[in-house]
Amino acid sequence: MASYAVKEAFLTLQGEGRRAGRRAVFVRFAGCNLWTGREKDRATAVCRFCDTDFVGTDGDGGGRFADAAALAAHASALWGVAEGARPYVVLTGGEPLLQVDAALIDALHDAGFEIAIESNGTIAAPAGIDWVCISPKAGSAVVQTRGDELKLVWPQPGIDIDALERWDFANFLVQPMDDADYPANRDAAVALAMTRPLWRLTLQTHKMLGLR
Ligand SMILES: C[S@@+](CC[C@H](N)C(=O)[O-])C[C@H]1O[C@@H](n2cnc3c(N)ncnc32)[C@H](O)[C@@H]1O
Ligand SMILES: Nc1nc2[nH]cc(C(=O)O)c2c(=O)[nH]1
Ligand code: SF4
Ligand SMILES: [Mg+2]
Q1: Mutate to test the pocket of ligand 3, among 29, 97, 99, 137 (most ligand atoms within 8 A of CB)
Q2: What NCBIfam families is this protein classified in (predicted)?
Q3: Which end of the chain is more exposed for a tag (fewer CB within 10 A), N or C?
């Protein structure tokens, strides 16, 4: 039976994308295939702009979960007893598709959750995920070229926007890269949305609000 390594898990509002503002349990899986997560490796990683600590299982609400039912029960406890809408869980990381499997999808659905994922797209998503958000990284081979939301962190030298526009997504989002050049990156993202109206601007609203 699969076990799951989770860096942290918490209740917040989805900060990004077409579903920004929605109450959600975030489950952040440990580990990624495009960066070790160690600063000494950042400059040589495929993905060099990551804003997230996904190393280990020591964060709030993190740990090793022996099976899918245990992780689904943990997510349910974080959601609590809120009425009026279907419980919503966002699977992220690190790269969640290194660990997410059919057993976990079934267990979360059995617990009543609608399931979203945030992935770099280099591993195919298993069937049954209700909202697939893919965020492509220059220099990686994306295999998951269909889904609900393509979220392009911008600017990224080496990305072919014409090629991305041929992928099969319901929504195309552009998100400014959060780094030392944020003001210029924000302007570049606005310019992309202004020149290519397929794309909509999304901001990391949780950072503005002081949410996790
Ligand atoms: C930390 S990643 C985890 C999920 C998955 N590994 C991925 O890259 O999509 C979550 C989201 O944050 C975005 N992201 C990471 N670092 C960022 C940064 N410095 N600025 C803006 N977005 C960033 C990613 O592109 C992705 O959409
Ligand atoms: N509030 C909040 N919204 C998010 N949307 C995507 C996130 C991620 O790190 O995957 C994220 C996150 O870390 N926090
Ligand atoms: S692929 Fe995602 S988790 Fe991995 S280093 Fe890049 S942004 Fe971070
Ligand atoms: Mg984040």
Answers
A1: 137
A2: queE_Cx14CxxC (TIGR04508)
A3: N
